[in-house]
Amino acid sequence: LKGMHTFSPTIKEDISFTQDTDLNSEYIYLNPMLFQHIDKNPFTQEERKLPVEFPHTQSFRLSASITIPENYVVDELPQSENIILNETQDASWKYYINHKDNTINMNYTFQLNKMMFGGNEYSQLKDLWAAIVRKNSEMIVLKKKAQ
């Protein structure tokens, strides 16, 4: 944990762990979003006239490196995706995932750069959150190699 005890707007946390799984199964399903950032879309109204106000700007970043177990190969991998809200980049979200050799790397970045969005921007916010929720629930599928 870095930056927690100093006056810093950024806190960095590095975590390394191993997760046991049933390796006798033909498939392994795993979500690369080890820590869900956004798992529900709060923007459920069809339209909105009043502005949407956030308490503060925010930045969230998650990087994960996943080692594929021996005797398994990648069967399905979520696609990378990138959304930028308007030319002034009031909000942006980037989800990059790639696979090389026996490692899957994922980088996820969310930026909220303004606190007040007008009613005319509501549908963009709603669509952004919907895309994030959908992507955050996608799984990596690993398949056991043929013997």
In words, what does this structure look like?
- Helix content is 10%, strand content 36%.
- With 147 residues, it is mainly beta.
- Strands 3-7-6-5 form a 4-stranded antiparallel sheet, with helices on one face.
- A hairpin with a 5-residue loop joins strand 5 (81-85) and strand 6.
- The radius of gyration is 18 Å and the shape is globular.
- The mean pLDDT is 87.
Which key features would you list for this structure?
single chain, 147 residues, mainly beta, four-stranded antiparallel sheet, three-stranded antiparallel sheet, 1 helix, 10% helix, 36% strand
Low-confidence stretches: none
Radius of gyration: 18 Å
Main β-sheet, spatial strand arrangement: 3-7-6-5
**Count of alpha/pi helices:** 1
H-E order: EEEEEEEEHE
What share of residues are in beta strands? 35-45%
Structural class label: mainly beta
- Strand tally is 9
What's the average pLDDT? Answer: 87
What is the compact description of this entry?
This protein has 147 residues and is mainly beta. The chain has one helix and nine strands.
Write the layout of secondary structure elements.
Elements (H helix, E strand, L loop, with lengths): L26 E4 L21 E2 L4 E10 L4 E5 L4 E5 L5 E10 L2 E10 L3 E2 L4 H15 L3 E5 L3
Antiparallel strand pairs: 1-9, 2-8, 3-7, 4-9, 5-6, 6-7
